[in-house]
Amino acid sequence: MRTLPPLSLLRVFEATARHQSVTKAAEELFRTHSAVSRQLRLLQEDVGAPLFDKAGTGLKLNRHGQQLYALVGSVFEQLEHGYAKVRQQAQPVGLHVACSATFAMRWLVPNLADFYRQYPDVRIRLSMTSAREIRNEGADLVIAWDLASYPESDRLRAITLAPVAFGPVCAPAYRRSAATGTRIAHDHTTSAWAHWDAHHKPGIGRGAEITFPHTHLCIEAALSGLGVALVERRLVQREIDDGRLVAPWGFVEFPFGLKALPASGISSENLDNFIGWLRGQLVAQNPG
């Protein structure tokens, strides 16, 4: 049988000693001043000696209190770290994945059920951001097709997941106006239209230009007849299949492909499995 005082008394003592104040300890522990004072008296009775001296309006540890605080503080710190480790190990294994909101909504989330069937113990936490902000999410893995703004060292170690094919799409009623109509562009990733213009002869959207911060909004603008959007084929295949969008000039494979960029220094079986699953699903569902 352990001859120790109740843990609640030691917890009150540790908080009071740290703050050198009964009032502050009571606030931290969500207890009344009188309840904390009463538990301190019980502990001092158990020890057989006072643990604090008065110091103005506060308290100061005496020699016995300093000895006990050195012991209790160390034990509580070990207990806190150990408990946090147990909780972490008890939680489902997870991966923090950052990708564009459009890719998450239109492809990744609709396909995650298949991943969970294969790997039921792994949970994916998503950060959905604009392409410009995606670099700073602190994720285990970033998924993006445009890495032009990334450091060369990141571009070199990025893993190619699948080819990408982009094409100008518009509402069926807008088809006749597409060549001279409005071009819909993404605020932060202009390389798609620049690549199309450099490698595809027909001029498209030679009129005005409107921009949006997310590809999803570009697609919605095209659906509503505002103009022509240049979009990756997988992201609009559903709308093309049901006739709400048309792609008069088809889709052209771009050289960069969809990339996976793991965080520097990270390596795990779950990360490898997720990247392998992404590759398999993207290739299997390639509309081309």
Automatic annotation (TrEMBL):
InterPro entries (alphabetical): LysR-type_TF_proteobact-type, LysR_HTH_N, LysR_subst-bd, WH-like_DNA-bd_sf, WH_DNA-bd_sf
Gene3D superfamilies reported for this sequence: Periplasmic binding protein-like II (3.40.190.10), Winged helix-like DNA-binding domain superfamily/Winged helix DNA-binding domain (1.10.10.10)
Bilayer-spanning residue ranges: none
UniProt keyword terms in alphabetical order: DNA-binding, Transcription, Transcription regulation
Occurrences of domain HTH lysR-type (ranges): 5-62
Family according to the record: Belongs to the LysR transcriptional regulatory family.
PANTHER family associated with the record: HTH-TYPE TRANSCRIPTIONAL REGULATOR, HTH-TYPE TRANSCRIPTIONAL REGULATOR TRPI
Protein name: LysR family transcriptional regulator
Protein species of origin: Pandoraea apista
